[in-house]
Design a protein that fits this description.
globular, alpha+beta, about 100 residues
């Protein structure tokens, strides 16, 4: 798993991990955070935000429990469209993720 800043700077490369149905992105992130791999929790400063994609949905609870602020594109959850605030936040997260993944 790669830990990357919003400018594309690679902070850490953790792994390799076996990837299967039980060991997905969220499970790997939970493991990294709970074991504090590479002292990742000490890198976080106040008001830092972890930007993740929807594959990390199941690890959001552990991030919040550890006091980390995380941002992920929102789901419609049966609605037809987002509110203006939700749409703008989702666009911002997508733009940041695009810089990292490009």
């Amino acid at each position: 798993m790669m830990i990357v800043t919003t400018t594309g700077y690679i902070v850490a490369c953790i792994g390799p991990f076996m990837f299967d149905f039980n060991n997905n992105d969220a499970a790997i992130m939970k493991d990294i955070l709970l074991r504090n791999t590479d002292h990742i929790l000490s890198w976080q400063k106040e008001h830092d935000i972890l930007v993740v994609d929807r594959g990390f949905r199941d690890s959001m609870g552990i991030m919040k429990a550890l006091g980390l602020e995380a941002a992920m594109p929102t789901f419609l959850d049966g609605r037809r469209q987002f509110s203006a605030e939700e749409a703008n936040e989702s666009r911002c997260i997508t733009k940041i993720r695009w810089v990292v993944e490009a």
